[in-house]
Write a structure and sequence with these properties.
- This protein is α+β, with helices and mostly antiparallel strands.
- It has a single domain, classed as Mannose-Binding Protein A, subunit A (Mannose-Binding Protein A, Chain A, Roll).
- About 15% of the residues lie in helices and about 20% in strands.
- It has two helices and six strands.
- It has helices at about 30-40, 50-65, and strands at about 5, 15, 75-80, 95, 120-125, 140-145.
- One of its GO terms (cellular component) is membrane.
- One of its GO terms (molecular function) is carbohydrate binding.
- Keywords: Lectin, Membrane, Signal, Transmembrane, Transmembrane helix.
- It comes from Mionectes macconnelli.
- Pfam families: Lectin_C.
């Protein structure tokens, strides 16, 4: 599900947001990645502040449309393979884009990534949550366990 939206200005010219109100339809990171690939795409690499802003605007339009979008984070294509150095200070440097992009752009929430057993990345979308140290849990990135359902 999800509507494809295309723009000319970005390297990734088309985007598709998949949001499931029904919790039972939400999936883990690898399932999300496979679903994108079966659809001829890839989990999103966000390569610049401008692209991040574009996606935030798409999410805002989705929520404005009255389609009932509530709390629910979105998988993006950033992840960390292996966990040999997961707790060390180099951990943030181990994250890579699933589609092979080498973009260094990151938009972590305050105190993220927390590393450890959390190796796959979501874009926060929790409009009803009380703000934390880094402000509202909206659009910044958080590492999460790869088997969580988003």
């Amino acid at each position: 599900s999800g509507q494809k939206v295309c723009y000319g200005a970005f390297k990734h010219s088309c985007y598709k947001l998949a949001y499931f109100q029904d919790l039972s339809r939400r999936v883990g990171f690898q399932e999300a990645r496979q679903a994108c690939e079966m659809d001829g795409g890839a989990l999103l690499s966000l390569e610049s502040e401008a692209e991040q802003q574009l996606i935030e605007n798409m999410l805002q339009n989705l929520t404005k449309s009255g389609s009932g979008v509530s709390d629910g984070d979105f998988w993006i294509g950033l992840w960390r393979s292996g966990d040999g150095l997961a707790t060390s200070s180099v951990c943030p440097d181990l994250y890579q884009w699933a589609d092979g992009s080498i973009s260094p752009f990151r938009n972590w929430y305050t105190d993220e990534p927390s590393c450890g057993s959390e190796a796959c990345v979501v874009m926060y979308h929790q409009p009803t949550a009380n703000p934390g140290l880094g402000g509202p849990y909206l659009y910044q990135w958080n590492d999460d366990r790869c088997n969580m359902k988003h």
